[in-house]
Every structure is written in C-alpha cells, then in structure tokens.
Amino acid sequence: MRFAALALISLAVVVPRLAAQEARLAAANTAPMLAGIDAGTARYADVARQIWQFAEVGYQEVKSSALLQSELTAAGFAVKHGIAGEPTAFVAEFGSGKPVIALLGEFDALPGLSQDSVPVRRPLRAGGAGHGCGHHLLGTASVASAIALKQWMQANGVKGTLRMIGTPAEEGGSGKVFMVRDGVFDDVDAVIAWHPASGNLVETTTSLANISGKFRFRGQSAHAAGSPERGRSALDAVEIMNVMTNFLREHVPAETRIHYVITKGGAAPNVVPDDAESYYYVRHPDRAVVKQVWRRVEDAARGAAIGTATSYDVSIVGSVYALLPNETLAHVQQRALEVVGGYALSAAERDFAQRLQQSEGFSAVPLETTARVLPLAPSAASPTSTDLGDVSWVVPTVQMYAATWVPGTAAHTWQATAAGGTSIGVKGMLVAAKSMALVGAELFSSPAIVAAARAELTAKRGAGFQYETVLAGRKPPLDYRAGGTP
Ligand SMILES: [Zn+2]
Ligand SMILES: [Zn+2]
Q1: How far away, in angstroms, is 171 Cα from ligand 2 center?
Q2: Who has the most CB within 10 Å: 137, 153, 290, 421?
Q3: Taking ligand 2, which is a single-atom ion, which protein residues have CB atoms under 5 Å away?
Q4: What are phi and psi of 189, to 5 degrees?
Q5: How far is the CA of 2 from the centre of ligand 1 (A)?
Q6: How sure is the predictor about 96, in pLDDT bands with cuts at 50, 70 and 90?
Q7: CB burial string 189-212: b at 16+ within 10 A, e below
Q8: 28: exposed, middle or buried (Cβ count in 10 Å: 0-12, 13-18, 19+)
Q9: Cut 0.70: pTM above it
Q10: What is the CA(299)–ligand 2 centre distance, in A?
Q11: 339-381 tens-digit pLDDT
Q12: How many whole angstroms separate alpha carbon 80 and alpha carbon 89?
C-alpha cells in the first residue's frame, strides 16, 4: 500500500544531519552473495511472473504463498505455514541463536487492477485482480534475498537466525497485525522490508494509522411503489450515514482521511432494500485521533439506523499503526542501496515507459530516475497506511523502495500492474533483493548496530509502551475479499 511519491517530489533535499551519520558497510565477502542473486535472475523473474498472473487477493494467496514456500524449502529453509490463524502466512528459518534477522514478503493482489504488461489499458481478466501494488515482486525479492543471505552465512560460518516471513493480506487485511499480536515477532531483533515504487530510496517518514470496517444495515423489504410505507430501507441508512460523515469532515483534525465505498446497496429499484453495507476507512498519523474519529463515524451509523428504523452492526476489518522509522537501520539500508545502485532502462523499456507515461495520471518524472538512488531525507508523513506500522513498533524495522515501475507511476493503478509484469519490475526487484541482503549481512556482522537500533526503538516508544491493537480478540478477516468487495 505504501508508495514513495512524496519522497520523489523532494528529490533534491539533502538533510546534513542524516547524511553525516552515514557509515560504511563492514560485512565481508558479500560479492558472491550479490552475484548469486544476479545468477538467479531468470528463476526469480519466472516466480514473480507466476505470482503476477495468479493475482490472488488478500488471504486467498494460496498458490502465490505455496510457490514462495517451495523456493525456500528447495533452498534448505525449514518452512512452517499457517501462522497466526492465516493459512497463507509462513515462516521460513535457517540457522540458530542470536541475532534473529527477518525479511518480510507480501504477495496479495488488488481487486479490479487486472492488466496485461502493455502500455495501454488492457485487463487480462475483466474486473479481475491485479498486482497494482507490486506485491508479486515484493515477496519474490525477499525470497531471493533470504536465499542469498543463507548462502553467505554458510560460506562464512556466520552464526544467528535468518527468517523469511511471508505476510498475507497487506491490502486492507492487516495480515501482519495478527502476526504481531500473536507473538510472531517477539524474538526478532531487526526486520528488513521493502516496497515496489518508481524510485530507489529508503523510508524515513511515518505513515497514517487507520481503522477500517464494514457497516451492515438491515431493514424491511417491500414493493417500492405498491407498499413503500411498509418498507424500511437499509440503503437509506447507508446514504444518511454517508451524508453525516461527509459533514463530519469539517470537524476533525487536519490530516484526517475518511473514505468509503458502498459494498451492497440493493438489487432492484422496485424493491426497498432490506440489506445494505458500506466499507469505511479512517486515517490519521496519530492513532488516538483515528480512534476518536472512528467513534464518531460509529455514532453516525447509529444515528442513521435510528432515523431510518433499521438496525446495524459494525465489523472491524483492519487497523494499523503509523510507521515508526528506525534511523539507525535506515543509514545501513541507504549505504547498501548506494552500493547496489539503480539501473538503466533498455531501449525497449524506454519505449514502453514513454508510452505508459502518455496515459492519464502521470506526473512528468524523468526516466533516468531508475538509475539514481535518492539521498536519505525526511519528508512529510506519507498519506498511506501499511501493516508494517505495527511491526515497526515492536521490532526495529527498515523499509526501502526500488524502482519497479515507470517513473511517475502511482501505486494502485493499472500502470503499476503493467510495468510490474515487465523486465522493469524484475530489474527493480533485483535492486531490492541485493540491497536487503547487504543489510542482512551487515546486521549479522555488527551486533552494535542491532543493539543501537533496539535502543532507538525503545527511546522512541517511550517508557511504559505496550503494544495493543483494536483487533485484539478478533480473528483475521479471511473472507474480507469475499463477494468481490474492494
Ligand atoms: Zn498497496
Ligand atoms: Zn503495497
């Protein structure tokens, strides 16, 4: 869900305080590790392409998860699947003892973003799902990185535990939140993550906390012309609730985001709908504000139900923390990314990119962006949310972005699906895989960095911090994509 549009806008911003803290990498003998990833290019491209074609939505990523697991099993990892009540979650492990370093991989697709790898709108399956957030590359790069790191550990007699954690349903399913809640990260010392983007950079900003949920109204059906007085419209309740929340926007703290879709609104105009549903998100950088605004949205639902003589229930679907960036790890990741560097587009890729940039919704970003690594620079909070947020409050976490899309691409678009299915996506994926492997090697080689990252997390959380989630007591919403709801 995350993307790096804001950071790309601040291309030229270099913050001296951050730049001054950069350190060189200390891990030895990493060249064969990087060469191993390059040597696996065709294989990993094939894995990513298969997952791109599967295009499985949240908690339904059966084939995608199985494919990544089979790659890890074949490479000698011990793999467990079915984690935290999520059938498609998995943990692959190699080694033993401390430190425990984990790479994370997502693999869920988005409804409605099916698209062929061509620079014009052409769905592979009309109305089908597609990888408009690049998670087919995300999971595959982390697997490639983990396999290379394992080989490096074995070749160099490195002690410690390497984990590759497969995390389902990032897109609204809060897959990682249930894993955090159930202790999957309790003994992990550092988490290395990445996300597809249209530039190469390291995350230094926070994101938005959120709560999402579905409001289901029940009324009484009746002939809409013959006996409307006997009907109680659930759709009326949905519409009135929406009117109230739209007025509410004026009276909430700045930076609040409220959005909704109507997921059920009746089947025929001549029948008063007795069953209607809306699906809401509330977001803000501060979790406490999100909770307050969410209570007011629930009040609107209650008011709408009273006024329309309907009943309702609310089902929380997801909730995430805002990301807590770890500067200690960000500096290591920046150095690693600079060592690996970006890549140039081939003539065919440039042609594809230029044609895609002519489609609607592009900002004019130079194609040379793929070859650059942006400086480490803080910017405003990214107005998106990620379940990596919860992870980042319990484990020191770093996230980088690699240019898997044509420069100027927005996430969650058919253009992202299109480029992600081409060699541009593969090239970006390899940048991520190699950069993350270098960070992993550095953390296994430098206990002081791991300790400093933990100390930074402890200080930023403040005394008395205890992780809690509004999803406590709930099961993962394994059916939240059922019925084609977005
Ligand atoms: Zn996304
Ligand atoms: Zn994403």
Answers
A1: 7
A2: 137
A3: 1, 133
A4: -90, -30
A5: 6
A6: very high
A7: bbbbbbbbbbbbbbbbbbbbbbbb
A8: exposed
A9: yes
A10: 31
A11: 999 999 999 999 999 999 998 777 778 999 999 999 998 776 6
A12: 9
Q: Please tell me the distance from the alpha carbon of residue 234 to that of residue 220, in angstroms, as a whole number.
A: 8
**Whether residue 196 has a cis bond before it, omega within 30° of 0:** no
Instruction: Name the β-bridge partners of 130.
Output: 110
How many whole angstroms separate alpha carbon 204 and alpha carbon 198? 16
How far is the centre of ligand 2, averaged over its atoms, from the C-alpha of 131 (Å)?
Answer: 9
CB 33 within 8 A of CB 227: no
238, 242, 245, 247 alpha-carbon torsion, rounded to 10°: -140
Residue with tokens 């998106």: 384
286 CA distance to ligand 1 middle (Å): 20
Q: Which pairs from 238-243 meet CB under 8 Å and 24+ separation?
A: 238/262, 238/265, 238/276, 238/277, 238/278, 238/304, 240/303, 240/304, 240/307, 240/308, 241/215, 241/278, 241/300, 241/301, 241/303, 241/304, 242/278
Q: How many CB atoms lie within 10 A of CB 331?
A: 23
Residues 235, 265: contact at Cβ < 8 Å? yes
What tokens were used for 88?
A: 């498609």
| Exposed / middle / buried, residue 74 (Cβ in 10 Å: 0-12, 13-18, 19+) | exposed
Tens digits of per-residue pLDDT, 155-191? 999 999 999 999 999 998 999 999 999 999 999 999 9
Amino acid at 12: A
- Produce one character per residue of 363-388: b if its CB has 16 or more CB atoms within 10 Å, e if not: eebebebbebbbbbbbbeebebbbbb
Which ligand is located closest to the Cα atom of residue 110?
1
